[in-house]
From TrEMBL:
EC number(s) stated in the UniProt entry for this protein: 6.3.5.11, 6.3.5.12
Similarity field: Belongs to the CobB/CbiA family.
Source organism of the structure: Methanothermobacter defluvii
CobB/CobQ-like glutamine amidotransferase domain span: 247-431
Protein name: Cobyrinate a,c-diamide synthase
Cofactor(s) recorded in Swiss-Prot or TrEMBL: Mg(2+)
Molecular function terms from GO: ATP binding; cobyrinic acid a,c-diamide synthase activity
Organism domain of life: Archaea
UniProt-listed GO biological process terms: cobalamin biosynthetic process; methanogenesis
Site (Increases nucleophilicity of active site Cys): H427
Keywords: ATP-binding, Cobalamin biosynthesis, Glutamine amidotransferase, Ligase, Magnesium, Methanogenesis, Nucleotide-binding
Length: 447
């Protein structure tokens, strides 16, 4: 059983509705998914269902890998239903006419039915026109239902439902009223991560109750049940290349929590024991062979990170001893000399600063120009960058990656190196850089 919950565009209420539906059905076994390179929406899904949300992305993955990622996650969680929240509008991708990176591409790879979410504020008959347009653009995309959001009142809902059903032949399975309780706080990278909000669980409960009240969940399950067996080839997500046991310290706390679950599992599949630690709360690094510091919001917690002097010194000693550290985006910032003049680890002698506008927002294609912690010279890989910060004075640094698509740190270069340490603005997924875990664990053992 599977379904894609897609929007006609951004800001139509996909995350609130998708998370609420996941919560409402969580007792029946839901494995959540998110289309695209997103860390924050999945944190809501995970809290709603108790199962770790996974990302599906046709820029990172082949169709065969999308099928592998979906079926693998369903098996690991033992869930009956796979619910996939889309990204932006149903057909939005990296090209104005192509499929790559779109929600539609994932729906087609999985042969999954689609329920279209429409912001129906001030719409009645025009909502039917939107459904007809979305259905006719690509006949391989199976739009089997519609959810109307921002409904003014019951009369508005009934009129709009009649227009859509009679003029398009597509079932309307619910209408969500306008309500401030069905909104969620935003910040510069998107939604506030669930890990930061003690109250988010209560919000998700409200969303779940609202979906139970306003959506025909039995009709939704009928749509999910209409999906047949997933057909087509499947392809491994990552390489296996290390059998030597290593311990990898992974930074996980309020400041650092942007990790694709598959990255962690790829490390474990390459003989790594993952040891979590907190740069905010722990006094020093655990006994590990290498360190992985992912993305997050270190700028929000810069004061706490600066005040934990013993941890910063522990990381400095680890680097000075020649042991490997890999930092991604927020991790890169933490490894710099400072963030907005607050002292950080100093693995790299460059300050990072936040700016008032986005500095990098793109799918990335990069090529390794030298052997490094996670790739070898000549390797090409894909990733994603989204940051408002920049690194100052790095133009003279030693870089491992040439950025072929995207921005990087400076001058289309990324992956700054120092000793055995590597830091990059590029977020990678195990499927987009399948050699990542094998190389990282092997290098951790060798160093």
């Amino acid at each position: 059983m599977r379904v894609v919950l897609a929007g006609t565009g951004s800001a139509v209420g996909k995350t609130t509705i998708a998370t609420g539906i996941m919560k409402a059905l969580s007792g029946r076994g839901v494995q959540p998914f998110k289309v695209g390179p997103d860390y924050i929406d999945p944190s809501y899904h995970t809290m709603a269902t108790g199962n770790t949300s996974r990302n599906l992305d046709s820029f990172f993955m082949t169709e065969a890998q999308i099928r592998e990622a979906f079926t693998r996650a369903m098996k690991l969680s033992g869930s009956r239903m796979g619910i996939i929240e889309g990204v932006r509008g149903l057909y939005e991708g990296i090209s104005p006419i192509g499929d790559t990176g779109s929600t539609a591409s994932v729906a087609k790879a999985l042969d999954a039915p689609v329920v279209l979410i429409i912001n129906s504020r001030s719409l009645v008959k025009s909502a039917a026109a939107m459904v007809l347009g979305f259905r006719s653009l690509d006949r391989e995309v199976k739009i089997e239902g519609v959810i109307l959001n921002q409904v003014k009142n019951r009369r508005h809902y009934l009129k709009t439902r009649r227009a859509v059903e009679e003029l398009t032949g597509t079932a309307v399975i619910g209408g969500i009223p306008r309500s401030s309780e069905l909104e969620v706080e935003q910040r510069h990278l998107g939604l506030v991560p669930a890990v930061e909000r003690d109250t988010i669980a209560a919000q998700i409960e409200k969303w779940g109750l609202a979906m139970e009240e306003y959506i025909d969940l039995e009709a939704l399950q009928d749509i999910m049940s209409s999906a047949g067996k997933i057909r087509g080839e499947r392809q491994p997500l990552w390489q296996r290349g290390n059998r030597k046991r290593v311990r990898i310290g992974v930074a996980i706390d309020e400041a650092f929590n942007f990790y694709y679950q598959e990255n962690i599992e790829a490390l474990e599949d390459n003989a790594a024991s993952v040891v979590p630690f907190s740069p905010i709360h722990d006094e020093e690094l655990p006994d590990v062979d290498a360190v992985y510091i992912g993305g997050g919001y270190p700028e929000i917690f810069a004061a706490e990170l600066e005040s934990n002097t013993s941890m910063r010194k522990s990381i400095q000693r680890f680097h000075a001893d020649g042991r490997p550290i890999f930092g991604e985006c927020g991790g890169l910032m933490y490894l710099m000399s400072s963030i907005d003049e607050r002292e950080m680890c100093g693995v790299f002698p460059h300050p990072a600063e936040m700016t008032g506008r986005v500095q990098g927002l793109s799918y990335v294609i990069a090529e390794a120009v030298m052997d490094n912690l996670i790739t070898e010279a000549g390797d090409k890989f894909r990733g994603h960058e989204f940051h408002y910060s920049r690194v100052l004075g790095a133009s003279g640094g030693k870089f491992a990656f040439r950025v072929l698509r995207g921005r990087g740190i400076v001058d289309s270069l990324d992956g700054i190196t120092s000793g055995s340490s590597l830091a990059s603005y590029i977020h990678i997924h195990a499927a987009s850089c399948p050699q990542f875990a094998a190389n990282f664990t092997r290098n951790a053992w060798e160093f």
